[in-house]
């Protein structure tokens, strides 16, 4: 507001948009917003217009006639915020057009994209250094959710910001529970998890297009309302998926990181990482798409060593040695998060230089601290079974034999007759997977990569088999259910039947206006309505997320539903 440059770092869902939308509404001229995705522009413009703040966007989805019409509206001072893609600034003609406008502020969203050290570097963003050259007296507000110290410095340099005010908000999103579980049968684990969530919205991230298609197909085969999203799909299909997910017509999106920056959906209740991200920035940005309404949400990370080895191989395949070094350093930080034996949120916050000694109480490590137990007997069962089947099975096959599962492969190998067949049927596959993985890490077992990952005994395994030493193992960390389901009841002190009716009304209004339901009201607002139950306009206006424009537009139908509900229940 004072005309100074600024750099703002806030976590995903922390309110970055408000940092430029509010000044835009108060400043006399026009605010230009540089945004990377068409879908994100459309969502924000739709939302602003329904709040009574005039906004528009110019991107490749518009015709020349539509763009000219927007410039006419700009000339007539009918627009307060104009959203642009960074590619627009390559055009000298377009820059000249901006010189004719009363611009009060430039806002650059996702500013980490300008830095070569950023986890999502985009060449088009490098054009943005022209803003200070062309418009030296207009303040620039750069915003990002995830940037380490190096990236922050690079943003300031690239944009040539003049003695900027730097605002670093807390990166903590305490409503998101961080959970990690061993991945032993990823598809079935994911299906079981989603079914426990009912009809809640979720996102599943995978690292490859093939895996996205594979997971989506598996979920659809058991009746889960889902869709795949990746860069290999036609833009029309991607836009359709994103729009229907925003409108609650699709429950789950299975996606690569291509599905990300454009999501402004507030009621995503969980994010699942089916495979590890390459950086802690990516991880934190992706899980930040859950719980943007402030209500309880969960980030579930399914971990498998094989996924990690694949990522390391892909990083090393790059011919650029400097890039390999940078990416390996970033991935080592990710591995540190994976291997953490202390509060996971501390690991993340310390990485972003927000040092804290206090545990969060809302991650799997805090809720279920790692414990050691005498794993000698469990290890002996595993190692004996490897020996009895002639070291001719991978992890999955060994678990089948230990648990006494009869199938064609077991029968064909006569392994249902070995003495160790079924000695571990009292434990789950996930339990044995966790034990075997530890035995590999500790050097008692090896995987023969040249022979379909068959498990082989090592010299060190003899002492354990003979019982000559006690082997302490970490108690397996199993994903039995969603951690946040266990204690979220106290957060939701509202009339659930009324909440359901209000959601139905919201969906009906949103469909009629062809917008996402959260643009009408988000879940947090509905929960407050279902708790306080306002019966007139004055009471309705006191609800969080309700202003004069929304009261005028939507107040009566919601008050009518509340009154009818109270009448039926009295």
TrEMBL record:
NCBIfam families registered for this protein in UniProt: recQ, recQ_fam
EC number: 5.6.2.4
Ranges of residues in domain Helicase C-terminal: 186-332
Cofactor(s) this protein requires: Mg(2+); Zn(2+)
Catalytic activity field: Couples ATP hydrolysis with the unwinding of duplex DNA by translocating in the 3'-5' direction
Protein name, entry field: DNA helicase RecQ
Alphabetized GO MF terms: helicase activity
InterPro entries noted in UniProt: DEAD/DEAH_box_helicase_dom, DNA_helicase_ATP-dep_RecQ, DNA_helicase_ATP-dep_RecQ_bac, Helicase_ATP-bd, Helicase_C-like, HRDC-like_sf, HRDC_dom, HRDC_dom_sf
Enzyme class: isomerase
Domain Helicase ATP-binding: 1-165
PROSITE patterns: HELICASE_ATP_BIND_1 (PS51192), HELICASE_CTER (PS51194), HRDC (PS50967)
Family note: Belongs to the helicase family. RecQ subfamily.
């Amino acid at each position: 507001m004072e005309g100074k440059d600024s750099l703002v770092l806030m976590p995903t869902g922390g309110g970055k948009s408000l940092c430029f939308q509010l000044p835009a509404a108060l400043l006399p001229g026009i605010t230009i917003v540089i945004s990377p995705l068409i879908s994100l522009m459309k969502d924000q413009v739709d939302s602003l217009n329904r709040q009574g703040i005039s906004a528009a966007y110019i991107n490749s989805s518009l015709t020349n006639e539509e763009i000219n019409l927007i410039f006419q509206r700009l000339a007539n001072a009918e627009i307060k915020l104009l959203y642009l893609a960074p590619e627009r600034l390559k055009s000298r003609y377009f820059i000249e057009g901006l010189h004719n406008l009363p611009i009060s502020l430039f806002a650059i969203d996702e500013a980490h994209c300008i830095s070569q050290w950023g986890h999502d570097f985009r060449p088009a963003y490098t054009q943005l250094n022209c803003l200070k050259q062309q418009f030296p007296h207009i303040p620039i507000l750069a915003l990002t959710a995830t940037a380490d110290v190096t990236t922050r410095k690079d943003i300031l340099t690239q944009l040539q910001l003049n003695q900027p005010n730097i605002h670093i908000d807390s990166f903590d999103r305490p409503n998101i529970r961080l959970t990690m579980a061993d991945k032993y049968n990823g598809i079935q684990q994911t299906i079981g998890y989603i079914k426990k969530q009912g009809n809640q919205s979720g996102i599943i991230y995978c690292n490859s297009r093939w895996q996205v298609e594979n997971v989506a197909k598996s979920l659809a085969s058991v009746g889960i309302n889902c869709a795949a999203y990746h860069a290999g799909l036609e833009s029309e299909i991607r836009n359709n998926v994103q729009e229907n997910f925003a409108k609650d017509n699709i429950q789950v999106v299975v996606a690569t990181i291509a599905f990300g920056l454009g999501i402004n959906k507030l009621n995503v209740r969980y994010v699942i990482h089916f495979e590890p991200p390459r950086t802690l920035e990516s991880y934190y940005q992706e899980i930040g798409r859950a719980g943007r309404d402030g209500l309880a949400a969960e980030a579930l990370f399914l971990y498998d060593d094989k996924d990690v080895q694949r990522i390391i191989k892909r990083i090393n395949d790059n011919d650029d040695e400097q890039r390999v070094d940078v990416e390996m350093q970033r991935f080592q930080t990710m591995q540190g998060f994976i291997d953490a034996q202390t509060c996971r949120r501390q690991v993340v916050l310390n990485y972003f230089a927000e040092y804290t000694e206090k545990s969060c109480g809302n991650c799997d490590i805090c809720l279920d601290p790692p414990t050691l137990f005498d794993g000698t007997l469990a290890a002996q069962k595993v190692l004996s079974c490897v020996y009895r089947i002639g070291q001719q099975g991978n992890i999955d096959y060994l678990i089948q034999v230990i648990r006494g599962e009869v199938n064609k492969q077991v029968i064909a190998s006569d392994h249902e007759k070995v003495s160790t067949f079924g000695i571990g049927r009292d434990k789950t596959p996930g339990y044995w997977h966790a034990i075997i993985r530890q035995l590999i890490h500790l050097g008692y077992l090896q995987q023969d990569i040249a022979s379909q990952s068959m498990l082989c005994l090592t010299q060190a395994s003899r002492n354990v088999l003979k019982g000559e030493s006690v082997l302490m193992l970490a108690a397996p960390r199993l994903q039995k259910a969603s951690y946040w389901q266990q204690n979220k009841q106290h957060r939701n002190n509202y009339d659930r039947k009324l909440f359901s009716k209000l959601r139905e009304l919201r969906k009906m209004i949103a469909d009629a206006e062809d917008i996402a339901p959260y643009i009408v009201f988000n879940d947090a607002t509905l929960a407050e309505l279902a708790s306080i139950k306002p019966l007139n306009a004055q009471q309705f206006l006191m609800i969080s997320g309700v202003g004069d424009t929304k009261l005028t537009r939507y107040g009566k139908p919601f008050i009518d539903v509340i009154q009818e509900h109270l009448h039926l229940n009295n």
